[in-house]
Write a structure and sequence with these properties.
Blueprint (H helix, E strand, L loop, with lengths): L1 H16 L2 H11 L5 H4 L1 H42 L1 H7 L2 H28 L6 H27 L3 H8 L4 H13 L2 H19 L28 H22 L1 H7 L4 H4 L2 H19 L6 H21 L2 H15 L2 H10 L6 H10 L3 H20 L4 H13 L13
Helix pairs in contact: 1-6, 1-7, 1-10, 2-7, 2-9, 4-6, 4-10, 4-18, 4-19, 5-6, 6-7, 6-18, 7-14, 7-17, 11-16, 11-17, 11-18, 11-19, 11-20, 14-16, 15-16, 15-17, 15-20
């Protein structure tokens, strides 16, 4: 029952998180943004909340426990969704961003609690398999959400943009007000759903798990008393930062890249869903293969190598092929979180919750790297800016091959 409840939570994570791919082009038009990088403030506001709130989230969970902390996170997300109403009514970009930041804050509490929870539900060597199951819940929702929101908010958007060019200021404002209002109903539905789910979690039979930071014998691995005594964790934090950045780039920039090739919006807005489907395929492979046929660290190495290859192809091949290479980057990204997270917190003992919170902070990669991509498009073009993914995948490959063992090699000896 516990896994089912956590699976529902991961579905909510995915639905809310991957709405950003649709919100970026939508808000660029509705809020009359002038520069490419401004659109990626959507991802910045959402993901920077993880960096700001991850450690406070760890403190909150100490006070509330996992179950009540999850309920609180859902209610905070509902408040963020509520802010979309005044934001849409006034077409105030700052209010949209504040709503996204608050939703990210709620998610940081949920993520900080739920990822160690899933890992604790079974043996460490199959942790990637369990996280992969949660990933399917997340990515199925992520595949659905752009389709639903896109059909509401981006329908006939090319026609609208053409009409806006011929309107006077008053007519243009009226049309943009109408466009902005299209976000109200979806986010009211999201808000109500989050409140209902919060109540469900509160009164559910979700079992409590042992707090790793309170366990006796938590210093059994080498007597390490400080979180700074685990270099593999800090390498893992950098790895997760880079991974989340390239994962968000692969999904949230693809509509803009498609439009740069003069693709119409009705076609372009489907590509994030294709990327999510690729991720789902990867998670299914992970469930079948890990750890029976391949270890989670070898799976990570394969995915990182595939990311290097597809990243190079995205930059060098013609646009009509390149965009499918970019889409397939999501396949390469699929097994990275399920492998990086458990490898990074392996052997932390009583420091597990703090290590988890630090890893959640690394989700800020989704805030900063897309902003960097948006800035690079000015000088390198939409396609050339994808060169920035190459060093990211190379570092992830290093973590998979050697970095995850730094300082704790003795724990891997048979």
């Amino acid at each position: 029952m516990g896994i089912i409840i956590i699976g529902i939570l991961f579905f909510i994570f995915g639905f809310v998180t991957w709405l950003n791919a649709t919100l970026i082009p939508y808000l660029k038009i509705a809020c009359e943004l002038q520069h490419e990088w401004q659109g990626y403030l959507v991802t910045f506001a959402f993901y920077i909340a993880y960096f700001v709130m991850a450690l406070p989230s760890s403190w909150v969970l100490r006070k509330t426990g996992y179950k009540n902390g999850m309920m609180l996170g859902l209610l905070v997300m509902a408040i963020g969704a509520l802010l979309f109403i005044p934001a849409a009514m006034t077409r105030t970009y700052g209010l949209f961003l504040l709503g996204l930041f608050i939703m990210g804050t709620g998610l940081s509490v949920l993520q900080t609690a739920s990822n160690p929870y899933v890992i604790e539900l079974g043996p460490a060597e199959s942790a990637a398999q369990r996280v992969s199951i949660m990933g399917i819940c997340n990515k199925v929702a992520g595949a659905i959400s752009p389709l639903i929101l896109g059909s509401i908010m981006l329908k006939d958007i090319d026609l609208l943009e053409a009409k806006l060019q011929t309107m006077d200021a008053v007519q243009k404002a009226a049309e943009l007000d109408l466009l902005a209002s299209k976000s109200i109903v979806p986010y009211v539905v999201i808000m109500v759903s989050l409140v209902v789910l919060a109540l469900f979690v509160r009164f559910s039979p979700l079992p409590q798990i042992e707090d790793p930071e309170e366990e006796e014998g938590s210093l059994q691995h080498g007597g390490k008393s400080s979180i700074f005594s685990f270099p593999h964790l800090w390498i893992g934090i950098v790895t997760l930062f880079l991974y989340v950045g390239v994962e968000v780039i692969a999904i949230d920039t693809i509509i803009g890249y498609a439009q740069s090739m003069k693709m119409d919006m009705d076609t372009a807005r489907i590509f994030p869903t294709y990327g999510m489907i690729a991720m789902i395929v990867g998670y299914i492979i992970g469930i079948i293969a890990i750890p029976k046929y391949i270890s989670q660290e070898k799976a990570l190495a394969v995915c990182a190598a595939l990311g290097v290859i597809l990243g190079i192809c995205t930059v060098l091949l013609p646009g009509n092929i390149s965009i499918w290479c970019l889409t397939l980057l999501s396949l390469a990204n699929s097994l990275m979180w399920p492998a990086i997270f458990p490898l990074a917190i392996f052997g932390l003992g009583r420091h597990t919750k703090t290590g988890s919170a630090l890893l959640i902070m690394a989700i800020a990669g989704g805030a900063l790297l897309p902003m960097l991509y948006g800035s690079l498009t000015t000088s390198m073009g939409y396609q050339g800016a994808y060169w920035m993914t190459l060093p990211c995948y190379l570092f992830i490959l290093y973590f998979a091959v050697a970095g995850h063992r730094v300082g704790i090699k003795h724990l891997y000896k048979k």
